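Researcher: Hi, I'm a grad student and pretty new to this. My advisor asked me to get structures for two proteins we've been looking at. I'm not sure of the right format, so I'll just paste the first sequence and hope you can take it from there.
Model: That works fine. Here's the first sequence with its structure tokens right after it:
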Amino acid sequence: MVGFIGPNGAGKTTTLKMLSGVLHPTGGEARVLGFRPWRREHEFLRQIAMVRGSRPLGAPGELTVLDALRFQQLVYEVPEGAFRRNLAELTAILDLDRLLQRQVRALSLGERMRAGLASSLLYRPRVLFLDEPTIGLDVTATGQMRRFVADYSRQTGATILLTSHYMADVETLCRRIILIDQGRLAYDGDLAGLAARLSPYKLLKVAVRDGGATDWGRTARSSGRTATGCRCGCRASGRRR
């Protein structure tokens, strides 16, 4: 699972759209599972899925969630036996029992996200693009979403590319981080390396009690240091051994 991060306007969603075949790039080259995404070959589309937090479920509002899943079954030619097995598993994991007979337009954002994930994973894609999957979700729904994504990745071995402005999502789920800025690669590595690169130092704030002045010379003497040196022999000039 890879975290794909960057500031607003960096090109995260645009990149995901190109990798999923929604947009045709003006230049360059990209391959996913050996395919050029923008050719939108049938065999390629059967192996990838993209879920956007702003619109996780694209089915007409008049359909029930079960109708929407049945439609997805027809589009991706999922055999009936596999459909029933996958539906049962996704219903249990995503707690869809109470949603299956409800119309799409009656769902809350969190419920739409759960239904949208079920719709996208019904045919077991090998690559999953998640664009801001926790946007607008409350704390409980966010926790459920993170656990589900982690479990799905572990159980299926699917490759997941996740974009999010919530670093908690990235820290919880991703071992590899790709940072882009203005469409250019700025970093590719683990989270610890990113933190060391962007924040190599810590800022400490010291608050003095009661607003009184502190005798730093007395403090240094009490700790075994002097104004010109310390136990290790370094000098006030700042040179170190």
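Researcher: Oh nice, that was easy. Here's the second one.
Model: And its structure:
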Amino acid sequence: MRRFYRSGILFVAALSAQTARAEVLPVSGVDPALSDAAIDIESIAVSAIEGSQGGAQGFELRDKLRDAQVDGEAWFAVVDADDPKAQAVLSGSVSHASVRDQIDDKEVESCIEKDGDGKCLRKRTTFVPCSKLTVRLYPELVLRTGDGEEVWNYDSRVSDTEEYCEDESSRPTTSGMLDSLNSTLAWQIRRQLAPRDRSLEVRILERRKGLQKPDRGLFKDAVRMTKSDALSACIAFQNLEANNPQHPSLLFNLGVCQEGTGDLDRAQAYYLQVQDILGEKSYIDSALRRVASFKEGQAQIAARQAQIAEETDSLGDSAS
């Protein structure tokens, strides 16, 4: 299997096709896999997982890994464990434990006597027994290459707790909570092993104070334009930069525009300029973290491309 991924994340076409919405701009990128262990693995298998939840977790893992896509293309080919095409095999065990504990009773107040107008004259307090159910999954999973080398392992447990009282018609069950936990665990492992596409809308800044007077109306128009024509809005913001090179709202919005077209270096530079002017702000920190994540995702894709290209060259040399 040979696949190549483009490094551009959100293209100008997406900006120009934006539908009406609030004052936001679309950005998209690739968050990296949380581990580099499987970046050069294209075909993966899940062997029989042992333990009380092995069967359920094996099913979830195959499903999540098969659905892992980057830029619309499958990141892995999920094959059978005995398939010679499998470059790595995920194996191990997943067990579980559950416990019910009593918690404080729930105090329930009810009216036992009313007057003619329906006003409560006497109340009674009763106490309803309550409990909590805690379920935990204990994974011990290992990823090995075809020659048996261990390249990754995972043993972080997942758990959930639900409280309920005896007067409630619906109560949590161990099996129901296990279904949810197995899905959660499989998703965590998928995030460990494969990057993910992420798209979101970033709210722009609208404060005009400090802009050159002739530009304030143009800036307001550009902000309004983001609701229907993001590309034109970004062009309008760009046209205002020369006269307002230190205006934080304008610079931040330009950063979002650059991020939207996949130019992460320029986006980062704009966000850092805004940070120098305004200091630490949560929305700036969020933007910088997001860009750093997208850049790491791009680096992983580039490493995978290089590996595929090297393998392709090697096959060509062997054939000749």
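Researcher: Is there anything I should tell my advisor about the second?
Model: You could mention this: Residues 20 and 228 are 5 Å apart (CA to CA).
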